[in-house]
Amino acid sequence: MKREYVIALAGNPNTGKSTLFNALTGLKQHTGNWAGKTVTIAEGTYVHKKNTYRLIDLPGTYSLFSNSTDEEVARNYIVFEQPAVTLVVVDATSLERNLNLALQIIEMTPNVIICINLMDEAEKRGITINENVLTKKLGVPVVKITARSKKGFALLFDTIDRLVSNVIQGTPNVVRYQPEIEEKIAKLEPFVRTVVNDTISARWIALRLLDGDESLLQELMKRWNRGEEEILCPQTEHMVHI
Ligand SMILES: Nc1nc2c(ncn2[C@@H]2O[C@H](COP(=O)(O)OP(=O)(O)OP(=O)(O)O)[C@@H](O)[C@H]2O)c(=O)[nH]1
Ligand SMILES: [Mg+2]
């Protein structure tokens, strides 16, 4: 049966997202507006094994903490539009810095593939990366590619196909925080679960609210058309302002 899946491309600026997007879609892109904001996001499609994949090129960001419109747009897309897969494009030559965003995204959703790009550059610099170790540590598939020369694409296509058809599933190893933070999450998470539907990570929402993410709170209230008193946990309402 032919199906259509949405694939979001996320990553730090300058990691080769657009190069990958163009290589996959053959530049058949048009631009669209998302989440009521006038931010243009490229969109295009490719076909693999009779399935159509709609690719969404999200703005490049260093984090998803609501520091800028770009971060809000990328965050809202991943959390609320719920693409079948979020491809996190990371730069093989600065993996440590890039994995910061990757860790934030696997806290939000298990439907993630980490795409290590610029492998040609890494090889030139003598950097070797063991993707199997990374896959084990992160709990989501990791694929090495060179977007510029389309190297590694066969495995990337295959991994996307297996993830959307549930042959494999992401089981992210999420970060555990200090006991006092985990205690607060444990209190807030069941409450969040009663407000958001279960396709959204209640743990991640709880974490963001504990961090005082007002922008996310406003977005939640807007999307579910609820008043602030219904979103805030009765015992912990001050937490939003921590
Ligand atoms: N050597 C090499 N260069 C690459 C590769 N992929 C992308 N680049 C180069 O990296 C630079 C950034 O690529 P873009 O595709 O514009 O990156 P981006 O992530 O879309 O950047 P922003 O839109 O600014 O976030 C460009 O000069 C690309 O030609 C690759 O696989 N190998
Ligand atoms: Mg780009």
UniProtKB/TrEMBL annotation:
InterPro entries registered for this protein in UniProt: FeoB_Cyto, FeoB_GTPase, G_FEOB_dom, GTP-bd, P-loop_NTPase
Pfam families xrefs: FeoB_Cyto, FeoB_N
Record domain FeoB-type G: where: 4-166
GO molecular function, one term: GTP binding
GO cellular component: plasma membrane
PANTHER family named in the record: FE(2+) TRANSPORTER FEOB (PTHR43185:SF1), FERROUS IRON TRANSPORT PROTEIN B (PTHR43185)
Protein's name according to its UniProt entry: Small GTP-binding protein
